[in-house]
Amino acid sequence: MALSYLFFPGCSYNTSAGYRESTEAVCRAVDVRLKEIADWNCCGASAVFSLDREEGAWLAARLAALALSQGGAEIVTGLQRMPQRPEKRNQNPQV
Amino acid sequence: MGSDITNQVQAADDTPQSLWERFRDDCHGYMIDQCIQCGTCSGSCPLAGEMDHGPREVFSLIRDGFFDKALSSSTIWLCVSCYACTARCPREIPVTDIIYGLRQMAVKQGLVSGKARMPHLFRAFARQARTGKKISEARVAFFYGLRFPGDVLPNFPLSLKLLKRKRLEL
Description:
The structure holds two protein chains of two kinds.
Chain A lengths: L2 E6 L10 H11 L2 E5 L8 H7 L1 H17 L5 E3 L6 H8 L4
Parallel strand pairs in A: 1-2, 1-3
Helix pairs in contact in A: 2-3, 3-4
Chain B lengths: L1 H12 L2 H11 L13 H5 L10 H9 L3 H5 L3 H4 L5 H5 L6 H15 L8 H12 L7 H11 L1 H4 L3 H9 L6
Helix pairs in contact in B: 9-10
């Protein structure tokens, strides 16, 4: 049976060169099904986090909450920046 | 109104020393004490030539009590988060993360370098991210371009090519 994960495509999924094509090809090859998180938001990349730590954390928190409410504790993403956001929030107990 | 007054009182109390103490405790700033000034960070930085102080100098400024100068340097806004400095630092200082902390504090304290354009791009980006939807690169470029048309307009022919190849969404 194919593994199934919630997927966070991110804002550049359609426009970054080859990002969508390679993600879909890899998932086909290893028989993994990706289900896009409904109503996902931008992760803020480095821009939002650079201006305001709390706001950067909120964006990540909203995504985590959406994923949990849609039945997945694990999220798959091809973005380089996005996974660092929740991680950075964990590094600092204040946020 | 009340919060405005509170902010002003707080701003008056903030000295470079008190800001540094907050940074040291809240943003891993204490790790700067480990720096041996070897310059591996500045040597690894692809943008060091454009900065008014390289990362090594910023750490030196902070340790010598010029925390406000570090906050208002162009350095922190030129960082492209390549993490070369963090990966190579022999003292394992998370240089890039410290730069992020400096940015956040510079914004909060109103000490953003007047030379830096990245904060304006970041604000155009954050304005979109705040909507809770996905970002449109074209709209980010538009709002940034209102302030710096000279940065955006010369790229117009490139954006048409990107559109044609479906590498840009409106």
